[in-house]
Amino acid sequence: MTRLLLGVTLERICKAVLLLCLLHFVIIMILYFDVYAQHLDFFSRFNARNASRAHSFSNSSRPNAGAEAPSPSAKPSANQSATEKPLQPCQETPPGLVGRLLIEFSSPMSMERVQRENPDVRQGGKYTPLDCLPRQKVAILIPFRHREHHLKYWLHYLHPILRRQKVAYGIYIINQFGEDTFNRAKLLNVGFLEALKDDEEYDCFIFSDVDLIPMDDRNLYRCYEQPRHFAVGMDKFGFRLPYAGYFGGVSGLSKSQFLKINGFPNEYWGWGGEDDDIFNRISLNGMKVSRPDIRIGRYRMIKHERDKHNEPNPQRFTKIQNTKMTMKRDGISSLQYRLVEVSRQPMYTNITVEIGRPPPRLARG
């Protein structure tokens, strides 16, 4: 009798384990096909749109009518047909967004591949939607030194995302010349001025580290009524905001918001502190930081070792406490640098600058 009861009990346990395994398998398959379906839906819409354009092209009696990517030198004709409908403003939520994205860094990446994948991007890393009028003109600024490997992946993912978001944009790599201590915030100040020299119509500025890739294209790279912090949940922080005042990774300010806070501080040499100073500047000027939903504002970081000459800044905590006293004199109004070179590459514009070195520390005694 005891053996019979034991056998029945073991049979029930086995059935329960089998059911749990089956349930786990079903959940995994649902999640997999959810992501797969989103990608399939996007590519279906993409193919249908291309087929429609090809059909209109073949039926048109005028050369280049309905072409997706005219040559950069092509200009609209002064005597266009009066029956052509004027372009409408791009939708607030672009219809071609995919949603969650599969981000990985194991596949080999080359700049040639990035160029093949983005034939509509113009020299210098610029793009403008052809089927609607973008609401803003966005300059994307990346502080940079010795990160060519990361840049390839960043361009590989971000160009398609930005095009789906119907953004009129230009990508600027702000490359620090020499091997002195790195200064992220000062490079971004330089990028702000140099981008406006290149195109004075920029009214929105996105500041992004080169090793951060958004995991959802619904995280729209544009400016808002309040300064925007895009990188809400990084994988290195467990997809959580590390603390309420965090403003690092990827952020965005309109031209007027940036000038209101006197830009970014120039005196944070080395790693850390400048993003907290920027958060303080925003708060002290009566603005609030806006963020996307935590489920949309997720990012993957390309793993790497700490850069040489970008060691943690031991003075950062003292400086953060003094933002109120320093922000009027330290910022875009006091920026000094030497422009070394501007090089317009197919997928981005490289701006190499010399920004000096940190002042010598006073000896304690």
UniProtKB/TrEMBL annotation:
Residues 228-305 form the Galactosyltransferase C-terminal domain. It is found in: Golgi apparatus membrane. It catalyses: N-acetyl-D-glucosamine + UDP-alpha-D-galactose = beta-D-galactosyl-(1->4)-N-acetyl-D-glucosamine + UDP + H(+). The chain crosses the membrane at residues 12-33. GO terms for biological process: carbohydrate metabolic process. Residues 90-223 form the Galactosyltransferase N-terminal domain. Residues 55-94 are annotated as: Disordered. Its main location: Golgi. GO terms for molecular function: metal ion binding; N-acetyllactosamine synthase activity. GO terms for cellular component: Golgi cisterna membrane; Golgi membrane. Signal peptide: none annotated. Its EC number is 2.4.1.-. It is a single-pass type II membrane protein. It comes from the Eukaryota. Its cofactor is Mn(2+). Residues 65-82 have a biased composition (Low complexity). Pathway: Protein modification; protein glycosylation. Keywords: Disulfide bond, Glycoprotein, Glycosyltransferase, Golgi apparatus, Manganese, Membrane, Metal-binding, Signal-anchor, Transferase, Transmembrane, Transmembrane helix. Pfam families: Glyco_transf_7C (PF02709), Glyco_transf_7N (PF13733). Belongs to the glycosyltransferase 7 family. This is Beta-1,4-galactosyltransferase. It comes from Bubo bubo.
